[in-house]
From TrEMBL:
Signal peptide: none annotated. Keywords: Dioxygenase, Iron, Metal-binding, Methyltransferase, Nucleus, Oxidoreductase, Ribosome biogenesis, Transcription, Transcription regulation, Transferase. Its EC number is 1.14.11.-. GO terms for cellular component: nucleolus. This is Bifunctional lysine-specific demethylase and histidyl-hydroxylase. One of its GO terms (biological process) is ribosome biogenesis.
Amino acid sequence: MPKKGGKHAEMGKEMQPQCKRAKVEAACSPSVMSFESPDSLFGSLISPIKQEMFFREYWEQKPLLIQRNDPLLASYYQSLFQLSDLKELCSHGLYYGRDINICRCVNGKKKVLNKEGKVNYMQLKKDFDQKKATVQFHQPQRFKEELWKIQEKLECYFGSLVGSNVYITPQGSQGLPPHYDDVEVFILQLEGEKHWRLYKPTVHLAREYNVESEDRIGNPTHEFILKPGDLLYFPRGTIHQADTPFGVSYSTHVTISTYQNNSWGDFLLDAIPGLVFDTAKEDVALRTSIPRQLLMQVDIADSTEKLSSLLRRLADRLENTRELRSSDMKKDFIMNRLPPCLGCDSDPLTPGGKLPKIDSKIRLQFRDHAIITVEPDQENSVSIMKPPSYAWGGSARRETHMMGTEDDTASEDGTSQQTHGLRFPLSYLDALKQIWSSSTVHVKELNLISDEEKENLALSLWTECLIEVI
């Protein structure tokens, strides 16, 4: 096990200078989470830090520690997930590996203590109590509605998938060795206390998970204790390790993570094929043949000048047209994100009220869950997409959220899943953008030639519950 930082009663003075840049003491008690909008939810999550300051000074740059002494917020955090929830959750038919990992850090390495098959609560408790093992619970938002509400709003806020794991660690123990992740991390301390050490990244904004040896990471740049109601953020690539101090019966925290494979590099990998496809239709230079035997060469250095020239032509087209289409990233996001958490209010999921007519005023529903896209393989069409409608009630899609099933494209009957959406002629693009960007719009004012087209567009969107008539 990595060397501990000592009993937390001895940490005080030594830790204060190390935390000075990242630590923010709450000047006043923040309110419990606000779910009015994605923006208000994130604002309440990082309160009292303002969002502008967070993205200017911390996001992808350095850790942020928010230590709060707020019993109300601590009680709310505890309600998100607690050790006592495990017994009831095990009755849902949880499996080792898929739903729960049992692990412990031994001599700087992760030792997995999983059994086979279904998780037995009594065996789980025995491993926790006697083997000092950490319980890692995968994607608890599948079972805990309040986490579903938080993560669904955060997915709307970031425009990126948001996952979570819960870690429950007994006193005097550590679950994972020093490592860094490929995600932006928000830690919410739910129960007990956790001793954290953060280290300077060896790979800034890392693209993959990696374990680091104790002798390579040097001294911590930050060292502190998280208590219930506290929040910690750190960028991907930040090396970290955490243990539950002696004298604290156990610690429970939830790690909320986002922005995996969501960089400019990922976006370019996704969008450049469409840009090349569109440009080649108009620019003969991209349609000329590559040199004879180029694919047989080991070294293609002689062709780099030509490739650079073609890339500049692509850049010129992008600057002139300002069109860059994301295809697979959008599909992955819309197909795998959480559905809206509507509680008992399922009315927005079924068409109702007035049919849209030419004189109707309409409003887009579920703005944060609908995406307009023009894909390279849809040369003359535009789509407005949303997650499959069967999932909007919250069961099917929520149950598999971020679980990485064996075949992400296969459904239970063996058929491939299709992105649920409506496809229209490309001439409808401006009208769809008009509906998207306006709080309300009259059907007769849509940017389409005929009244028939305007009514057909409105009726199609209404049938899929994407608009409502005001």
